[in-house]
Structures are given as C-alpha cells and as structure tokens.
Amino acid sequence: LATAGSNVRVVYRRIGAATPEMTRGARRAAHARLMRSADSVVAVANVLRDEAIATFGVDPERVVTIPNAVDPARLEARQDRASTRTELGIPAEARVVTSLGALTPEKDPVTHLEVVRRARQQAPEVVHLVVGDGPMRVAVERAAATTNGRDGRVVIVGSRSDVSELLAASDVLLVASRSEGLPGCMIEAGMVGV
Questions:
Q1: 183 Cβ partners below 8 Å, 6+ apart?
Q2: Around 135, how many Cα atoms within 13 Å sit in the side-chain half-sphere?
Q3: Are 1 and 33 in contact (CB under 8 A)?
Q4: Of 13, 88, 80, which Cα lies nearest the Cα of 43?
Q5: What is the pLDDT of residues 108-165, one digit of tens each?
Q6: Integer Cα distance of 31 and 102 in angstroms
C-alpha cells in the first residue's frame, strides 16, 4: 500500500519457511497476494524459492535464490577468547552454548533456555550466552531467572556489535527456530569453527 501510485519497486525477501498457519486458508491467500504483488522475490535458499512457487503461486521467473553470505574479515576477533569470557563473567573452564539472534517468537528463545537447562543436567559446567534483543526480552529474562539463571549460568547480553568476539568465546551455537532458511549466525559460527 505504501508504494501505490509510485515508481518504487518492491523486492520481497524470503528468509524463513512459512509456518503451517500461513500455508492454509485466508492467511495463505493473503500471504500469496503480498508475495505476488512484489516485483521480485529473493529467497536465501532453494527450498524457500520452491515454496514461494509451489505454495504461494509466485511466477518462477520472478523468484531468485541469493544465498546468505558473510565477509570472513568481519569475523576476525579483536580480542582473545579468555578476555571476552572474563568481560562476560564466564569461567574459563565453562562450555559456552550461544544463542544468537532476535528475541522473537519465530526464533523461540525460551525453548533455547529449556534445551540448555536439560544439557546442564549432563554437563553442569555449561553456560548459556544469549545474544540479541527483541519483544521477548522480558519473557527470556523471566524464564532464565526462574529455571536456570539464578547461578550465573545464563548470561543475557542484548544486542552486540562484537559478534566475532562472542563466537570466539563460544563452544556451541544453538539454533532452535520455529522457521528459518539458513540463518546468518549459523554461517558465521561455521566459519569460525563453532
């Protein structure tokens, strides 16, 4: 609606798979109309391109896949693992599981807390580093405080620009999203060996 009557071209970027609710009934019809009204659709993975075509009826000629990409130079940590852990109050011997992304329903950050809580039953030295911000921040803080955050084993740092240092301080990246194509954080973690 914002572009009606203008020469502005609209590109719809598909970064995650449609939820089951979006693939049925009125929601599917509305989503299909929105996608088909764009001048082109850019998907970050072929499976998302295929879904745009098969499920939402977008003309294949208007859908292109451009995979996520990360500049390796951006991932060079400016300080070492030990220094970052010290700044965050994380013990040197801890195993750090990092959740990196927006604190939003589709990323399901509360489930991240539950996964790490269960992991700590077998590996008590695990510390959960939560990086990101969003509308679920209060729910995440509350869940962390009531389930497994009382002893400093959950560190919530909000949005940060030093992702390279945070990944260098991590052992495992946890992704438990409800719907996502190929998150950039997964590419970044893989590039630095996490």
A1: 68, 101, 175, 177
A2: 5
A3: no
A4: 13
A5: 999 999 999 999 999 999 999 999 999 999 999 999 988 655 566 899 999 999 999 9
A6: 22
